[in-house]
Amino acid sequence: MEDRFNTIAGWTLGAGIVALGLASISGHYFRADKENRPNPMGHEIEGVVQEGAVADATPFEAYLAKADMAKGEATFKKCAACHTVAQGGANGIGPNLYGVLGEGIGQGRGGYAFSSGLSGKGGKWDWTSMNSWLTSPSAFAAGTKMSFAGITDPQERANVMVYLNSQGSNLPLPPVPEVKAGAAPAAAVAVVGDAAKGQKSFAKCAACHTVNPGGANGIGPNLAGVYGEPIGKGRGGYAFSEVLAGKGGNWDDATLDAWLTAPSAFAAGTKMSFAGLADAQERANVIAYLKTAK
C-alpha cells in the first residue's frame, strides 16, 4: 500500500515539474510577462504623443525660418489636382492660389464659390491662419469643401507656405519668438476640436449666453457669429467691461482659447464670472462649435 502511494506521489510530482517547465517556456516564447511590452506597439494614432516621447516645443516661426521653397514646390504637387498657382490661372475644383497670402479668407479668387464656413470666417490668410488651415482644413472651417485631410508635418507645412508666399504674395516672415529659460514648452500638437462635443459643453454657457442667430443678449452677449469679430465690440450694443472693450484684436482660435482658459486672466475686471475650462480638448471643442454658430 505504501509503495503504491509513493508511486502515485512520484507521478504527480513529475507531472507538476513538467507543467511548470512548459509554462516557463511558453511565457518566454509568447512574451507573456506583462512588463515586456510588444515592439512595435501597433498603429500610432495621429495627434497622440507616445509614452516616453518628448513633446516638440519648437515654435512654428522657427520652421518658417528654415523652410525650403523647392521642397514646398514639390509638396504643392499634392495640391495641383485641385489648385493652380500661376498668375491669372483658372479656378478648378479649388481656387487659384496666386497671391493668396495676405488676402481675405474665403473671399475673391475670381468669384470662386467658397463654402459658407470659409467665406464667413473673417480675417486674412496670414502665417497663423494658413498654418491652421493646412494642419486640418475641416477643423479650421467646419463644412469646408476641401476634402484634403491636412499636412501633419510642421516643416512640410512651412515649406508649402513659403512657396505659396513666393507666388505673388511676398509677406515678411514672422520673427522667431525668443524662448526664455524656464518657460513652459509650447503645445506639441494642435488640438483638433469636435463641434458636436463642443455643443454639449456649451450647455455650461447657456445660462448666460444665447448662440442662435438673432438671439437676445442676456447676462452675457449672444454669441452667434462671434468667431472672427472684434473682441468686446458690437453684439447688439452689449455693455462689455471697459477692459474687454479696449482689448483690441479679433476672436480667433488663440484669443478664444486664452479667454476660455481663464477669462479673468485674459481681461482683468471682466464681468464674466465663469472660472474657465481647464481641459484643452474641451476648449477646442467649444471653439469648433462656435465656428459653426453663424
How would you characterize the overall build of this protein?
The chain has helices at 2-29, 60-65, 69-75, 116-119, 127-135, 137-140, 154-166, 195-201, 242-245, 253-261, 263-266, 280-292. It has 294 residues and is mainly alpha-helical. Among the domains are: 60-166, Cytochrome c-like domain (Cytochrome Bc1 Complex, Chain D, domain 2); 195-292, Cytochrome c-like domain (Cytochrome Bc1 Complex, Chain D, domain 2), CATH 1.10.760. The chain starts with a helix and ends with a helix. The model is unreliable at 22-55 (pLDDT under 50).
What is the average per-residue confidence, as pLDDT, rounded to a whole number? Answer: 79
* Helicity range: 25-40%
Alpha-carbon distance between the two ends:
93 Å
Show unreliable segments.
22-55
Characterize the largest beta sheet: strand count, sense, and whether it forms a barrel. none
Highest CATH level, the class of the domain at 60-166? Mainly Alpha
Number of discrete helical segments = 12
How would the global form be characterised? globular
Total number of β-strand segments? 0
Helix- and strand-based class? mainly alpha
- Rg (CA only): 28 Å
- SSE run: HHHHHHHHHHHH
Named at the architecture level, the CATH assignment of the domain at 60-166 is: Orthogonal Bundle
CATH superfamily of the domain at 60-166: Cytochrome c-like domain
CATH topology of the domain at 60-166: Cytochrome Bc1 Complex, Chain D, domain 2
Q: Classify the beta-strand content into a percent band.
A: under 5%
